[in-house]
Amino acid sequence: MRVLLVNPNRMRPPVAPIALEYLAAALSRANHQVTVADLGLVDDPAVELASTLDAFDAQLVGVTVRNSDDCFMASATSFVPATAELVAQIRERTAAPIVLGGAGFSAVPDGLLARTGADYGVRGDGEDALPRLATAIEERADPAGIPGLAIRGRASMGAPPANAPDLSGSEPLRWEWIEVADYFRQGGQAGVETKRGCPQACVYCADPLSKGSRVRPRPLEAVAREIAGLVAAGIDHLHLCDAEINIPPEHLVALCRELARRGLGERVRWYGYATPQGFSAELARWARRAGCAGINFGSDSGDDAMLAALGRSHTAVDVAAATKACRDEGIAVMHDLLLGGPGETRESIARTIELMKHLEPTCVGVSFGVRLYPGTRLARAITQQGPLARVPGVRGEVEGNEDLALPVFFVEPGLGDEPERYIADLIGRDPRFFFGGQVEEEADYNYNDNTRLAEAIRNGARGAYWRILAELRGLL
């Protein structure tokens, strides 16, 4: 079967669609003919899409949805209308079925199918489900039994996600379908996946719903070879795409040992997301030897009661210990905070900001308001209280949005009036804080269409976006 894969992501700086590389390889192995329409870097995406559809005569069109929105209450930018417009453009040129996938789709599957008019969607890993769907359509068979397949008009959130394949036989990505070097030049880094899945129990996070809660590591040798290939091609700044690179910590230590053994630690600089729990001094030493230049800790809060309410497994002591471990090794540290969740008080916010100032990390990202994603514990607790418009603390698209496909956030109503102003006053003029609230228009913390970041990369900046912004502020 002829399958066209489409990357519509036009965010700036651009991010290489690593998922399409995996999917194209899986489809090819299943003897399907694959073409990729990568609209991320072209001058005119509509023209590029139309010409590809006319030339390829696709029998199935797959569209990756990296994000359903920017997950940022201050802007609340939804990408659902753009996805619906793209589906309409595809419909104008082909009668082929359209299937959506990607992390953004998996977060709000039913809402995206209903609002875009696509025929199918894949929740979770697509390497098994998408080739099976293509085969079923080709053989005129009913695809309804394919794990993870969502079908427009049928509720999918209660069904299990796609099969979570064992990645022990994973090979290095060859980057045959995506021009990763072009993305590196314009985006400043490339992505490498070392494992999938997240066992954390955060009440707000959709990652376990889309990637599974079982950690599935790739072979260390395959990851190291993949990194070596990228470095040989001149791509020497990487982002490790795992949900938490140090879960489990022994996997990261083993990977770092392998990278150091191959001498890659001297040739590459990499970044990743991590949990403060278990980020030990030994781990930091191996990370630095393996080329780690910065860690972004999803710390969320510096108040233990709030961390427990958010379902986090770490404590404020863990946050402090992880910060020290990295600082002792010269590794830059970013802490991401998530303020305003259920039970938040002005006192808990003050304790969090005070801890951050005391620890003196490289920088601190402050998000205010918790995005509600269907299927998460927090979303279930909120929606059980009645229509969104009547639930105290719910902000954003509260009318006609019971599927939560459009941006909707929760803010603890007990925080009173102008909580964003209160946070800004606590931060003061400390340049280490990136607070993208309505009261700080120049925070520059949103990576969606960030012209300042894109310009810095054009001028030679490389690495994690938070680190580039820190450098622009003179923090490094």
What would you say the CATH architecture of the largest domain is? Alpha-Beta Horseshoe
> Kindly state the mean pLDDT as a whole number?
94
Number of individual domains: 2
The first-to-last residue Cα distance is: 52 Å
Main sheet properties: 7 strands, parallel
CATH topological fold name of the largest domain: pyruvate-formate lyase- activating enzyme
Strand order of the largest sheet: 7-10-11-12-13-14-18
Q: β content, as a range?
A: 15-25%
The count of strands amounts to: 18
Helical fraction: 25-40%
Specify the structural class: alpha/beta
CATH C-level class of the largest domain: Alpha Beta
Q: What gyration radius follows from the Cα positions, in whole Å?
A: 22 Å
SSE map:
Blueprint: E1 2-7, H1 18-29, E2 33-38, H2 45-56, E3 60-64, H3 80-93, E4 98-101, H4 103-107, H5 109-116, E5 120-122, H6 129-138, E6 149-151, H7 180-187, E7 190-192, E8 195-196, H8 207-211, E9 216-217, H9 220-232, E10 237-240, H10 249-261, E11 269-274, H11 281-289, E12 292-300, H12 304-309, H13 316-328, E13 332-339, H14 346-359, E14 363-368, E15 370-371, H15 377-383, E16 394-396, E17 408-410, H16 419-427, E18 433-435, H17 451-458, H18 465-472
Parallel strand pairs: 1-2, 1-3, 3-4, 4-5, 7-10, 10-11, 11-12, 12-13, 13-14, 14-18
Antiparallel strand pairs: 5-6, 8-9, 15-17, 16-17
Helix pairs in contact: 9-10, 10-11, 11-13, 14-16, 17-18
